[in-house]
Amino acid sequence: ESANGFQFKKDSLTQKLQDTESRNQALEARLSELELRLESQQQEREAFRASLRSLLELLDGKIFELTELRDTLGKLLESS
Amino acid sequence: ESANGFQFKKDSLTQKLQDTESRNQALEARLSELELRLESQQQEREAFRASLRSLLELLDGKIFELTELRDTLGKLLESS
Amino acid sequence: ESANGFQFKKDSLTQKLQDTESRNQALEARLSELELRLESQQQEREAFRASLRSLLELLDGKIFELTELRDTLGKLLESS
Amino acid sequence: ESANGFQFKKDSLTQKLQDTESRNQALEARLSELELRLESQQQEREAFRASLRSLLELLDGKIFELTELRDTLGKLLESS
Q1: DSSP per residue over C28-64, as a string?
Q2: What whole-number distance in Å separates Cα of residue C36 and Cα of residue C42?
Q3: How far, in Å, CA of A38 to CA of D37, rounded?
Q4: pLDDT in tens, chain C (80 residues)
Q5: How far apart are CA C55 and CA D77, in angstroms?
Q6: Nearest C-alpha neighbor of B63 from the set D51, A57, D69
């Protein structure tokens, strides 16, 4: 092979390598971004569920209190 | 006793008897009125209690439905 | 009229008067009893209504708290 | 430069390029996976919110019905 031929192939390979490496960096940046987004969604989701669990406990309390009120009304009706 | 004395006592007794009988009629009228009032209050009271018992059953239904809603929320939170 | 005739009528009137007076006493006793019963039912009724009014206020409170819980859930759903 | 020198550089570049391309493929596979996961989480989240919105409407209904029950009790207390 001629020296020119070698040089051309070397340049072509170097160019391809640079393109691939720069594509790599773009992919890694996109991956980091997605991983952060997943993590942040996970945290949001946990916070949301924690709020819902609090609401569920509040609802339990309200149902308990309505049941007490119902029993008071029931006893009032039976007693007289 | 003289005939006049007898006549006077008889008139006096007759008068007293009439007064007492007329007092009797007034008392019996008042009694009838009170008995009717008691009976009518009893009926009102029964109707009122029947309405309250209906409300109690409605309240039972609402508490049951709230408990179902609470369970649905609970399962939703556990499942995901 | 003979003295015997007068005496008989007097005794008969006296007897009737005693019967009517004793009937009067029975009626007055019955009236007092009914009046007490009406008054006591009135007091019971007032106490019962007062208890129901307390229950109504408790129910108002529970409905208000359920509405707050509902609004919290609504905001949670909108915010995220 | 000698022919051996050229050959060595070309091999080295070719190797590096292959490594980078294979890293690229791994990154792209990981990205696809994350994108699917994000999309699936998004769908889960939408389904979850839709269920919560249904529950919110049910809760609205229950609160409305409790308020009606409360008004019925209120009218019952006023009317008698």
Answers
A1: HHHHHHHHHHHHHHHHHHHHHHHHHHHHHHHHHHHHH
A2: 10
A3: 9
A4: 577 888 888 899 999 999 999 999 999 999 999 999 999 999 999 999 999 999 999 999 999 999 999 999 999 999 86
A5: 11
A6: D69
CA distance A54 to chain C (A): 10
Whether the complex's predicted ipTM surpasses the cut of 0.95? no
> How large is the C-alpha radius of gyration of chain C?
34
**Token pair of A54, please?**
């609090």
Question: Mutate which of B41, B42, B73 to test chain D, going by most D C-beta atoms within 10 A?
Answer: B73
The answer to whether A6 and D3 are in contact (CB under 8 A) is yes
The CB density around residue D35, as the number of other CB atoms within 10 Å, is: 12
Q: Show which residues on chain B lie within 8 Å of chain A, measured between beta carbons.
A: 49, 52-53, 55-56, 59-60, 62-63, 66-67, 69-70, 73-74, 77
Give pLDDT tens digits for B41-65: 999 999 999 999 999 999 999 999 9
Residues in chain B with CB shorter than 8 Å from the CB of C17 are 13, 16-17, 20
Vertex B15, ends B13 and B18: CA angle to 5°? 110
- AA identity, residue A46: E
The CA–CA distances, whole Å, from A77 to A9, B54, D11, D79 equal 99, 11, 96, 18
Cα C55 from Cα D69, distance rounded (Å): 12
| Inter-residue contact B57 to D73 (CB < 8 Å) | no
| Nearest to A74, CA basis, from C46, B38, B69, B63 | B63
Q: Are C59 and D63 spatial neighbours (Cβ–Cβ below 8 Å)?
A: no
The DSSP secondary structure of chain A, one letter per residue, reads --HHHHHHHHHHHHHHHHHHHHHHHHHHHHHHHHHHHHHHHHHHHHHHHHHHHHHHHHHHHHHHHHHHHHHHHHHHHHH-
